[in-house]
Design brief:
It holds the Pfam family SBP_bac_3. InterPro entries: Iontro_rcpt_C, Solute-binding_3/MltF_N. It is built from 10 helices and 15 strands. By secondary structure, it is of the alpha/beta class. Helix 3 crosses helix 9. The longest helix is centred in the N-terminal third of the chain and has 16 residues. The protein is globular, with a radius of gyration of 19 Å. It starts with a helix and ends in a 7-residue tail after the last helix.
Length: about 250
């Protein structure tokens, strides 16, 4: 009986790992999670359609690889649980590749070069991360910005104010609820450009980062398919066209 239970558990795990591959074999759409509060990477346009750099990239990969996708707007705070629970097949949502996340998930090759960026009021004297030690700072919960501040002042510090999205951390800053906000460079720069009273501060000590597409641990078939599509759109110039559309410049590796 015990051995039978073990065999059943192993079989269930194998089915979960192979689910995405089976989905493609059966022709069903793959479900992709993206937090659509992250312009210009993913956001809702006036018609409530999810658009952005991430969306164009994943659609180009899917077209190249013959995959059918259904993109669902998922809060970043629950995006990894949705993947683990099998509610979605993979994630593209400005997710930074790091060692902590790689323990639980597998990633595609990098599709965007990033770093952290600080936002502050224009009259602020903050010039680096070190200047935020005794200040209130808003971050997206579970993001790289959250990790940065947690390392700097301690994860339980009351000065870290956690929110579900980048628009919320910037609006909190603009309203005077915090002294600064930290997030990924592309989205912070985009949001700050909408607030004349704010500016960005680039700390050279922030390490280079890379965004990756996230799949469940062990889903090698889907990971390889995504990587093949990404390599193809880089090679045929499609990637650069998309990059220029959203960032108004040609792509240049960091």
């Amino acid at each position: 009986m015990w051995n039978k239970k073990i065999a059943l558990a192993i079989g269930a795990a194998a089915v979960s790992v192979l689910a995405a591959g089976a989905a493609q074999a059966q022709g069903r759409d793959l479900v992709v999670a993206s937090s659509a509060t992250y312009a210009p990477f993913a956001f809702e346009n006036k018609d409530k359609q999810i658009v952005g750099f991430d969306i164009d990239i994943v659609n180009a990969i899917a077209k190249q690889q013959g995959m059918k996708l259904r993109i669902v707007n998922t809060p970043f705070s629950s995006i990894f649980a949705s993947l683990n629970n099998g509610d979605v097949d993979f994630v593209i949502s400005g997710v930074t590749i790091n060692d902590k996340r790689k323990q639980s998930f597998d990633f595609s090759q990098p599709y965007f070069d990033a770093r952290q960026l600080i936002a502050v009021p224009k009259d602020s004297t903050v010039a680096s991360l070190k200047d935020l030690k005794d200040k209130k700072v808003s971050v997206v919960s579970g993001s790289t910005g959250d990790d940065v501040m947690s390392r700097e002042v301690g994860k339980t510090s009351p000065n870290i104010r956690r929110f579900e999205s980048t628009p919320l951390i910037i609006s909190e800053l603009a309203a005077g609820g915090v002294d600064a906000a930290i997030g990924d460079n592309g989205v912070i720069a985009y949001r700050v450009s909408q607030y004349p009273a704010l500016k960005t501060v680039d700390d050279a000590s922030f390490p280079k980062e890379h965004f990756g597409i996230v799949v469940r641990k062990g889903d090698k078939a889907l990971q390889e398919k995504i990587n093949a599509g990404l390599a193809a759109i880089r090679a045929d110039g499609s990637y650069n066209v998309i990059y220029k559309k959203w960032f108004n410049q040609d792509y240049k590796p960091q």
